Amino acid sequence: MRTAFNWERAGGPMGIAFGGFVATAVIATVGGAAQSAAAYKLVDIDGAGVAIRALNDLASTLFASVGAPLAILIGAASLAAALSGDLPRWLVAGGAVAAVLEVATLGAVFVPVLGLLAPLLLVAWSLAAGVVLSLRGAALFPGTARAPG
Questions:
Q1: Distance in angstroms (rounded) separating the CA atoms of residues 32 and 55
Q2: Looking at the domain assignment, is residue 146 inside a domain?
Q3: Cβ atoms within 10 Å of 45's Cβ, excluding its own
Q4: For residue 148, is it within any domain?
Q5: Cα 147 vs. chain centroid, distance in angstroms?
Q6: At a CB cut-off of 8 Å and minimum separation 6, what does 20 contact?
Q7: What contacts 67, CB < 8 A, 6 or more positions away?
Q8: Parent domain of 24
Q9: Considering the domain boundaries, does residue 2 fall inside one?
Q10: Cα distance between residue 13 and residue 82, in whole Å
Q11: Within a domain: residue 149?
């Protein structure tokens, strides 16, 4: 990978993108743990209604705020791709648009349906980048592509 990606020009933004990934993973894990605790551990305890409600509210708020680190992840990865020249301009621009839209998903605290946009944007941009990089890798290393069957 080191030879296929220009780390000298894009190493800094890639570190920021990794930080966005770590923050996203932590927020999603804590949100999932809170939701699981509310659903599976406290449901059989009498008088735990307030704790269940608090954990559900915590999980909802965490999941609604996951757009901020995702915006950092996608934005920094797009910047790194722009600096290294490893992705086409249209995909870099698409990543910038996705990063801005990820920030808009922070409104999911007030409009819950916006929360569905965050993972969809991440998946769409990641799939597009993966396809482009796979095609680029096949072009760079023609002997590595395997014939089907």
A1: 10
A2: no
A3: 10
A4: no
A5: 32
A6: 69, 70, 71, 72, 73, 74, 75, 76
A7: 102, 103, 104, 105, 106, 108, 117, 118
A8: 7-141
A9: no
A10: 10
A11: no
- Distance between CA 29 and CA 16 in Å, rounded? 20
DSSP helix, strand, coil percent of the chain (3-state; round to 5): 80, 0, 20
Confidence (pTM): 0.74
Question: What one-character DSSP code corresponds to residue 144?
Answer: G
Domain count, the chain: 1
Amino acid at 46: D
> CA 117 → CA 48, 68, 85, distances in Å?
32, 13, 28
What is the identity of the amino acid at 97? V
**Alpha carbons 82 and 96: distance in angstroms, whole number:** 10
pLDDT in tens, 34-85: 888 888 877 777 777 888 888 888 888 888 888 899 899 999 999 988 888 8
Q: What is the Cα–Cα distance from 50 to 42, expressed in whole angstroms? A: 10
Amino acid at residue number 148:
P
- Residues 42, 48: Cα–Cα separation, whole Å: 6
- For the segment 6-46, what is each residue's pLDDT rounded down to a tens digit? 555 666 788 888 889 999 999 999 998 988 888 887 777 77
